[in-house]
Amino acid sequence: MTTQEMTNGTAGQATAGAGRPAGRPRSEKAEKAIIEATLDLIAEGMGVAELSIEAIASRAGVGKTTIYRRWSNKEDLVADSLAALKAPLPPVKGVSVREDLITLLAAMQTEAGHERTRCLMNIAMSDADRYPRLMGRFVKTAVEPRKQAVRDVVRRGIDTGELRPDVDVEMALGMLSGTMIWYTKWGNGEITDDLAERIVDQALTGLAAD
Predict the structure, then answer these.
(1) Model confidence at 150, in pLDDT bands (50, 70, 90)?
(2) CB 8: neighbour CB atoms within 10 A?
(3) What is the DSSP letter of 85?
């Protein structure tokens, strides 16, 4: 091969390479397709036990090796897919405990109102005993940050004097988030736009007569 031919070949390779998309966006696109495929299959009624890497790869339009390069097993993939259902935590303004708690509970209500999310969570929870590691990962990545956000607001309220110094933080968390789940998951009571506000106000007021 002549020097000129080698030069032309190198230039051609450079031109071809310049036309290729960067590797990172392609990787992100594949990951999104895999997660969406996983969620779609579960939402259609496929339990975690029945779900297979082959089915996910086929639905996502990728090879199995593409999935295994990112997730070493099915449980990790399902956990990450379920976590992807959770929207980022809304920022709290720190103006008042009441306003911040309403913000966090309203986000819970919005998430629970998505039919796909509700269906997927019901299926995932039904497999919790069979796949404790999966649920443990999901709780750590998606549930615990939301619980911690409520704890932080309650503790701040104690520090600022907005709440009593003897408030049981975990009990307050259970009362607030548990009541929202009582309404949105179990269908008890009327779900209105001001549900988060009503729950927070009732918790802050208490049940005892003055």
Answers:
(1) very high
(2) 12
(3) T
Give the domain extent around 49: 22-73
With beta carbons less than 8 A apart as the criterion, state whether 134 and 48 touch. yes
Look up residue 111 and give its amino acid.
Answer: E
Q: How far is CA 75 from CA 36, 54, 68, 117, 188, in A?
A: 15, 14, 12, 18, 32
By residue count, the chain amounts to 210
Give a yes or no: residue 11 inside a domain: no
Q: Give residue 22's pLDDT.
A: 45
Same domain? 65 vs 102: no
pLDDT of 107 strictly over 60: yes
Quick check: is 130 in a domain? yes
CA proximity to 207, closest of 174, 175, 168, 165? 175
Looking at the fold, whether 117 and 183 belong to one and the same domain comes out as yes
115/147 same-domain check: yes
Q: Which of 1-5, 36-40, 205-209 has the highest mean pLDDT?
A: 36-40
Asked if the structure places residue 87 within a domain, the reply is no
DSSP state of 91: P
Count of domains for the chain: 2
